[in-house]
Amino acid sequence: MSWTAEIPWDPDDLVPPDDDFEPPFPDDAERTFIASEPARPSPARFSSASDALHTVFGYDSFRGDQAEIIQQVVSGGDALVLMPTGGGKSLCYQIPALVREGTGVVISPLIALMQDQVDALSAVGVRAAFLNSTQDSSERMRVEHAFLAGELDLLYLAPERLRVSATADLLDRGTIALFAIDEAHCVSQWGHDFRPDYLQLSVLHERWPTVPRIALTATATEQTHLEIQKRLQLTDARHFVASFDRPNIQYRIAAKNAPQQQLLELLRTEHPGDAGIVYCLSRASVEKTAEFLVQNGFPALPYHAGLDSRVRAANQARFLREDGIIMVATIAFGMGIDKPDVRFVAHLDLPKSVEGYYQETGRAGRDGLPSTAWLAYGLQDVMQQRRMIDASTGSAQANAAENAEHRRRLGMHLDAMLALCETVECRRVQLLAYFGETSTACGNCDTCLSPPESWDGTVPAQKLLSTVVRLHRERNQRFGAGQIIDILLGRTTARVTQHDHSSLRTFGIGTELGEQEWRGVVRQLLAQGLLAVNSDGYGTLLVTEESASVLSGQRAVMLRRDPERPERAAKTRRGTTAVALPAGAVGIFELLRAWRAAESKEQGVPAYVIFHDATLREIATGVPSTLAELGTISGVGENKLARYGEAILSVLSS
Ligand code: ADP
Ligand code: ZN
């Protein structure tokens, strides 16, 4: 095996593309449009939080810490909220903005998503708007006017805009109910989503010391938590840290053999018709995979930073608006996407860290319905990532020591990810432990559903390591996994003959295992740090300091035997939409979905802005016959009842 390929991904694909962000100096923003208008605060629209919850959002009760968080902000205090994706963070600032006098100002990083956020709020009757560089001056003028006239409950801004003094002046003149800092982990310099302008957000506290602030993130590490507190000067904030468990997500990590076919099988057997995200490392594999899925009859679209921005925007819009689209993407895609009915997230390549994996898989199942997180992982992934780390440097100015430190950190991230892949224990227990939570076996991950065996691989490990050592010591040669396995299996390939491997003492001593199993051994030795990839660029293998104890018999090596069909136990779970609905409701649900699709197309808003799947399912099972009955269903608030009630009842009676 050799490594001639270039680094397979582009740094631009590690973050959302530039045009998702506000330009650093927003055009035309140095002035506001309304010079002297008598400002009025937006009145408090509800006297209690639960009143707003029922009337506006149509929900029965608060979840988790929502009630307490809202109470904290309503009463003027600061809050720092760590809650997983889908936990219900948005209500934590939306409701206080409705209960307090003034407009809630939301700092949100991606301008590309502000329109959808505003649409979703308008649909429930919340008066929301945004100011950003996608608007022309007349639109901005209208928003500024509405803000000063007290006609906005919520105003979305990108952090860059706060640097502009005119924006701050505008905010000064109006009344601010609260500041919500969404995706607050962007303030963390060590995190993968760092945004320099987030560092400026301490200005909020300095300039408007009496306005309560609420910072929210779905990033769970302790380090990020502390960094948010420090950098945003949230000294007196109450901290709310929710459990990061996502019980509705089934975590599965499969041995990678023929990844595209494996993906196809997953989609056909478990997710026909479902919306999902497929993550690939490189732009080329994004495009190939999307094409492959289309050829096989799935509506898949590509997304990566190398695509024209209009194509990207159009693909993103289709993914959000239409039902059942599969987005094949680099990790540039996904932050801030709040589509609730993403039913699966598949990784065709190994994520670089557990944080990344958790964030990406977390985009599945925001609506709480069963969803799948599936990762295909193999020897190549480990080799590729180890090699990448060797080649990587920190910032352009970094010195040798800093680069070494940078690589050490990347190595630790990868090791944790590999440990998750190779575990024979519950995936969820391990995942949560990484975020400092203790839990018990979940029953809803691949290792719980079909427990892998662990076996004593000490002897095979010794055979393999000693082959590597002998080749080097006796012949000053280094080889990749392919040739080493050929030697162990005693194969007389051209390469073996060429190098006269058959005279080696370890030639043919490993026939007790097959090629796939040997590849599993190599992969796991790499994962455990008992074998290393040479930084010569060819993927040749080396022993490590730790290997010595294995060769001398002081250390046993326990390995994981990949189950033949690791997902069999899970396969009983058919397409998730079909399974939970009683037979009679399926047809009604489909009728409602068709009605919703037409409605969303007509209005140009995502389907979930009209009604979530969860709400349609409840309607399909309950079959309400009056508006009053319909109004009791979760997710049907006053506004939606008034707007869609009759239409729903007529779909039901058709
Ligand atoms: P987050 O921002 O934390 O990822 P969201 O605010 O998007 O999560 O909420 C996730 C989903 O849960 C949304 O579909 C939202 O409407 C729903 N939700 C939030 N709070 C409640 C609640 N108290 N009752 C019912 N559904 C809720
Ligand atoms: Zn489990």
- Helices, by number, come to 28
Give start-end ranges of low-pLDDT stretches.
1-7, 568-578
Distance between the termini: 63 Å
Q: Rg to the nearest angstrom?
A: 27 Å
State the helicity in percent bands.
40-55%
What's the multimeric state?
A: single chain
Taken from the alpha-carbon principal axes, the silhouette is globular
Backbone structural class: alpha/beta
CATH topology of the largest domain: Rossmann fold
Strand content: 5-15%
| Spatial arrangement of strands, main beta sheet | 3-4-2-5-6-1-7
The CATH homology group name of the largest domain: P-loop containing nucleotide triphosphate hydrolases
Mean pLDDT: 89
Assigned CATH architecture of the largest domain = 3-Layer(aba) Sandwich
For the largest beta-sheet, the strand count, sense and barrel status come to: 7 strands, parallel
Number of domains: 4
Mind telling me the CATH class of the largest domain?
Answer: Alpha Beta
Cofactors, ions and other ligands in the entry: adenosine-5'-diphosphate, zinc ion
